[in-house]
Amino acid sequence: MVCYLALYVWELTMSKVLKAIPAMDSDGRLRLFHNALGYIRSGQKIEEATRVIEALQEVWAEELLQFEAGSYKAPSPKNGILSAVGYHVGERNGVKEELRRDLLDFIMTGILPPVGTPAHYAEWGTPRSVTRYRKLHRVLQSFATSSKSFQDPNESNLIKAGREWNEDLKYIEMRWRTAVS
């Protein structure tokens, strides 16, 4: 009996979470995305976390359709797409290489959260597209190039960030250059 009650409470909680997603603000949705991704990466609650990510992608896809129809305007972002999905480099806020690669793959294949103006969002194109690849490549290349012009020998965070942007640029070139359509 206790097991059935716990399962019922869990399903009720999941149902509430899934129903709440459309009304969440973009920051809440991104926190939920990162939590779900964390569960998947740790091997816990994979089915539930996958359901959450699928529900988030449905909402993001609907907002994109509304944008294309001219009836949706994303709020101005504090940060861009890479930051929104949790991609960070450097010593201070950087994430490990394996997670950065997973996030880059998600950026290439997933429905992205609406970030910035509709025009900015549209620049990212569709999943697995040449447009998406070129935009991601330009962003990483811009970061890597700008890090070189601002490098201070005493600023180890920027040096590490520049190195990681270059490594990730090579990764997407090897992984995605010929895989997009």
Explained architecture:
The structure is a single chain. By secondary structure, the protein is mostly helical. The chain has 2 domains: 1-72, no CATH class; 75-181. The chain has 8 helices and no strands. The chain is globular, with a radius of gyration of 18 Å. Mean pLDDT is 83; it is low at 1-9.
Topology of helices and strands:
Layout: H1 2-20, H2 26-42, H3 46-68, H4 81-84, H5 97-109, H6 118-122, H7 130-149, H8 156-176
Helix pairs in contact: 2-3, 5-8, 7-8
> Total strand count, please?
0
Biggest sheet details: none
Question: What is the count of DSSP helices, taking H or I runs of 4+ residues?
Answer: 8
Strand content: under 5%
Q: Multimeric state of these chains?
A: single chain
Shape: globular
Our count of domains comes out at 2
- Detail the poorly predicted runs: 1-9
Please report the distance between the alpha carbons of the first and last residues. 53 Å
Mean of all residue-level pLDDT scores? 83
Roughly what percent helix? 55-70%
Can you summarize this structure?
The protein has helices at 2-20, 26-42, 46-68, 81-84, 97-109, 118-122, 130-149, 156-176. The protein has 181 residues and is mainly alpha-helical. The protein has two domains: 1-72, no CATH class; 75-181.
Summary keywords:
181 residues, mainly alpha, 2 domains, single chain
